[in-house]
Structures are given as structure tokens and as C-alpha cells.
Amino acid sequence: MKSLVNMIIGIVVWIFNFIKGLFRKLLDTFFEINICEKAIVIGTVLAFAAVVAPMARYRIFDSYFTINNPIAHYMIGIALAMLVTVYFPGLIVMVIRIILNMLYLINLIYLQAAHEISRAPYELSAGYYLNIIIAVVYVLLALGSFFLYGES
Length: 152
Description:
This protein is mostly helical and 152 residues long. Helices cover 72% and strands 8% of the residues. The chain is built from five helices and three strands. The protein has helices spanning 2-32, 35-52, 72-84, 91-113, 126-149, and strands at 56-60, 63-67, 123-124. Helix 2 (35-52) packs antiparallel against helix 3 (72-84), helix 2 (35-52) runs antiparallel to helix 5 (126-149) and helix 4 packs antiparallel against helix 5. It starts with a helix and ends with a helix.
């Protein structure tokens, strides 16, 4: 019984040390990238906040009901693409980043302009503006990373 407990403790310690080593390697790699790329990694938190934030709201009787972002799955994909491309500098990566974010931004603005967010009469919430902000920030950071640090 004592050897079984020691074996379980050894496995738990090995798993903990493995995870700690991975975290340390990720943190060291994070400190090696330029400031714009660091901002992209940190901005991903803002992107996921934009995904879960309600985009609009409408009133029925005395209660407000919220409408989720109908194109939120695209922002999840963009955030993942931005994270993956952090370690691949160059012109092609910058162009891909800008195209993805501009397509999302155009689609988001079109949804509001065509009143396609919902059929109910609605008013915009902070989530709509947060989605616009994160797309613009991603474009500016991609441009800044390429032109300021120009690693090709």
C-alpha cells in the first residue's frame, strides 16, 4: 500500500513539473517577442470578452433581453489565427491578419447597417462596440508589428 501511494505521489509530482516546465517555456518565449506581438497575445483576452458580450438588447414589457453576436465564431477563429501567427513574422502573415480582421469588421458593420442582428427592434450594447474595437486593435497591432519591428 505504501509503495502505491509513493507511486501516485511520484506521478503527480512528474505531471506538476512537466506543466511547470511548459509554462516556463511559454513565458520565456512570450518575453522574447516584440511589444506589438505581446499586445496581440494579451488582446486575445479582450477578443474572447467580445465574443461573450451581448451585442444588442431589446425590451419586452419591463425586461431587457440580450442578443448574442451571430458571427462570434469568426472572432474565435481570428483570435486563434492571431495567436498562432505571433511566431511567424513576415509580410504574408501581416496581410493574412489584416484581411481576416477587415472581413470581420466589414461583416460586423454590415450586420448593423442592414439591421440583421435580430428581427426584434433592438438597441446596440457595449459588446458590439467591443467587437469593432478588437478588430481595429488587431489590425493596428499587426501593422505595428510589421512596420516597427519588420522581421521578415
